[in-house]
Amino acid sequence: MLQLKNISKDQVIYLSGPMTGLPDYNRPAFDERARLMREAGYIVNNPADISRQYGLDKPYAFFFRESMRMLLRSDVVYVFGDITNSKGAIMELNVAKTAEMPVIWEVCLRGGTLCPER
Q: Of 38, 17, 12, which is closest to residue 88 (Cα–Cα)?
């Protein structure tokens, strides 16, 4: 279930979740959330769109840099999935924290070290 109650519709949402090592880079999960958010009237930056624009034949560093650009053009970060082993998503959280961006967690894994303080 999407957690959108603390996000206003004039804020740009950046989707953050695990991609590397997952089937189709987890694009279906990113796309479904983006679709639902857009249908609800939100503006969404979906990093899965980067591979659609540039193709999949680029190195990891290329996608990471492009996703950081997209992240920094956003207002709030929406985290979903188990990002425990996702170096990209963890870096996105670090950048969001440094940039003092709000972070919304779809699900907080109880006892997880990445959960925000409540």
A: 17
Residue 70 near residue 13 (C-beta atoms within 8 A):
no
Strands (E), the chain: 12-16, 43-45, 76-79, 103-105
The span from the CA of 115 to the CA of 90, in Å, is 11
Q: How many residues comprise the chain?
A: 118
23: left (phi over 0), alpha (psi -120 to 50) or beta: beta
Domains and CATH numbers, the chain: 12-105 (3.40.50.10400)
pLDDT of 19 reads 93
Determine the 3-state secondary structure of 48 from DSSP.
helix
Say how far residue 55 (Cα) sits from the centre of its chain.
Answer: 19
Report which of 46, 96, 94, 93 is spatially closest to residue 66, judged by C-alpha positions: 46
DSSP letter assigned to residue 74: -
Both tokens assigned to 5? 């109650």
CA distance 57 to 34: 24
Place 116 in a pLDDT band, splitting at 50, 70 and 90.
low
